[in-house]
Amino acid sequence: MKTYDLVVVGSGSGLMVLEAALEQDLSCALVEKDPLGGTCLNRGCIPSKVLVYPADVIREAEHAARIGVHFTPPEIDWPTIAKRMWTYIGSNKQIETSLNEVENLTLYRGTGVFTGSDTMQVADEKNGRTEPFTGRMFVLAPGAQTRVPPIRDLEAVGFVSSESFFGPQFPEKPWNSLTIVGGGAIGLEFAHIFSAQGTRVTIVEMADRLVPLEEPEISAMLEEQMREHGIRVLTGYKAVAARLEQGLKTLVLEPTAGGAAENATSEEILLAAGVRSNADLLQVDKAGIATDARGYIVTNEYLETNRKHIWALGDVNGKFQFRHKANYEAEVLAHNLFRPDLSRRKAQYDAVPWAIFTSPQIAHAGLGEEQVKASHVRYKVGVNHYADIAKGYAMGYRSRDNDNGFVKLIVDENMKILGVHIIGPEAAVLIQSFVYLMNAGYTCPDQQTRSGGEKKRKRAVPGLFPPCPEAGTLDPVSRSMVIHPSLSELTAWVIDELEWVEPDS
């Protein structure tokens, strides 16, 4: 039986660990059932942004009338947009060619399934199953897939998922009408892409507001802007059945709080109601790998599973399903596995940033205000609007405008950053400076006492930040010059708006 030093399942962020192992001259196997490069390259963050940017330009052109610049309605060259997207996705072929030429690496194309605690076979539709092989170490990064909710007759009516959209169901032109099931990041990006290009979009969300993980005021502003863009927003509704009517697809929607049902009829239905783990495809139970109630592989702070020779990272461990988080985990794991001369690193999830590339753009890092309240600590909240800075006014934002976005900052009594939330242009860029600050200062020893005998400081919010005076504070911002006029003033000057919020008694 063939034995490898390392077997990696999944060619997204798993490639980073694989590359580190190959640099150590280890014998390796890579198992991948889909195009090389993972979700991000083939059906996720990268191709979607190729489609998002033209929608951004259209919305910016519409906004330009406020500053005295007028455009005629844009002409959409969908074939050119699609060609640019497919060209980028096509780089997966180059990845596969390169991997096939690497020494000490065997590339298996198909679904890897465990046959024992350290043995695996690869199955594909063309060639059946390979001979079993053994791995001294396994790194599992098989990702996740679109969750299909239990909607009666949905399979018969037909639908599109992110897997099939960036595949055989990619439309030759924008649909005339589209119903999106799910009001999270994926659904909102597709709503932006197609509504900007003239598609009549309906978005259905079971929760009582869109993006329920964001601050309520951000959800409220987003919903108002979606409606202004002509999008029909139905929150608090659950899709229960589907049917075909005169060539169109209708979803029957029941209100979660009771009341009369609604219908959503459109040319196509797109599912974006979350994802499910791919762990079951690997038959991880045969290897004795523990999973949680949702089917995600359970890992500790070192990305270890309950099997000492098996690690898991990325979407399959269910923690913050973003490619940048998976890349971070891959870096941590490669360090721990292949740098024995250095101390082990823990995966920290205190300041995981994310952005939703819809209109308006949203960005988030750290805790929301309700989470901070639940910790019963004294904290400050500051809000600064785009119209409150010169650059915002130059961009056409006024205080009375309902699209006047803002940054919301939450800090503790030591001015440590607990959470940052932004809605408006370039939110994904503006959040990043706070992320750097939140990750600064991780230099304090994690013992009960420090070298000088000083007792370890109690964490204000348990599990959030290390109890170091220099960690994650706003001091560097308050001491720094900020380019004027620039959008950087939006995030720098929110410090001046901080006001105390007393903990609940």
Describe the structure.
With 505 residues, the chain is α/β, with parallel strands linked by helices. The chain has 3 domains: 2-46 and 84-144 and 276-338, FAD/NAD(P)-binding domain; 154-273, FAD/NAD(P)-binding domain (3-Layer(bba) Sandwich), CATH 3.50.50.60; 360-501, Enolase-like, domain 1, CATH 3.30.390.30. Helices cover 27% and strands 24% of the residues. It has 16 helices and 23 strands. The strands form 5 sheets. Strands 1, 2, 3, 4, 5, 6, 7 and 17 form an 8-stranded mixed beta sheet that branches. A 6-stranded antiparallel beta sheet has the order 18-19-22-21-20-23, with helices on both faces. Helix 8 links the parallel strand 9 and strand 10 (200-205). Helix 1 (14-23) runs parallel beside helix 10 and helix 3 (45-63) runs antiparallel to helix 4.
